[in-house]
Amino acid sequence: MNSFIPATAIGANAPPPGATGDEIVRLVDVRRRFGATPALDGISLTARRGEIVGIIGRSGAGKSTLIRCLNGLEHADSGEIHIEGRDIAGLSENELQPLRRRIGMIFQHFNLLSAKTVEENIALPLKIAGVGKAERLARARELLDLVGLSDKAKAYPAALSGGQKQRVGIARALSARPALLLSDEATSALDPETTRSILALLKDINRKLGLTILLITHEMEVVRSIADRVAVIDAGRIVEEGAVWSVFANPQTEITASLLSTIRPQLPEHIAARLSQISGAEAILSVDLAGPAAQGALFAELSAALPHSFRLVHGGIDHIQNQPVARFFIAVPTRDETLPAKVTDFLSARSAWVEVLGYDD
What we know:
The chain contains 13 helices and 14 strands. By secondary structure, the chain is α/β, with parallel strands linked by helices. The strands form 3 sheets. It has a 6-stranded mixed beta sheet with strand order 6-7-8-3-9-10, with helices on both faces. A 4-stranded antiparallel beta sheet has the order 2-1-4-5, covered by helices on one side. Strands 12-13-11-14 form a 4-stranded antiparallel beta sheet.
């Protein structure tokens, strides 16, 4: 007996019998070792229906092992992996098959079959599941329209650009109307312009279908563009987690700050290189702001309260999840040695995160 739920019966990403609540993914203390090396060292994480969660980390951090545990290709040594309320840890291969159909997967290198047309690639998961030809091809045409490739149904992958191939990969991942979409470095092989178009497509699909998406990536720009929450993974552990704008505004760990360094304002190298940690004519402060504090007349207020107390060295304001997020570097004269502390106290009292980076002559 075929366990696949026909496309006509799952039009709104319907959960399986017995699923409760809005949690699509719940990981509890998941551990996986390879020999003496812990690839996952106590991962706990949730993703709710319609949420986009970015999971970011350097190469070797555990991202690939995590995604393989989520789709059942790896078995965790311990812990719980709930997909739509059912713990998949310990299930047999036969028991995993219907659950895997609730999970779509898109890959860095597309993984399309070169000998099949675009519509055949998209329809392949439905063919494997035993869906009739007319129904699966109708679903393929529907998805081609969704991803903007209606005119490519009869084309072969070799005739497509990288961005078009990834759109086909996305359509194929959606063919069985999954509740969860896993994106494994899906834009890493694409140029920046194509990456932006693919991310915009994923966000559009998320809105239209209410689809939960887990983005596995090493690129903070990907997370910044479309994620609701971000979890930073390092050495098999989640070291930081929160709303994207909050984490970007005030990273709590060194690894997060390092990953963010490519897209957050940084002190210019020629200034950073000459900083002293002992003394100098000016103290160089980093000032991080988010929300209302980033929009207000904070520096004007500072100038009024402490006249001639600083000059702006570098920085800027971004908007993430409709929240202003700012980072500035200011120089505060040290002729009054109490002035840097006064500036720090003034800004900190107004919800800024302030750090003295060093001293410059």
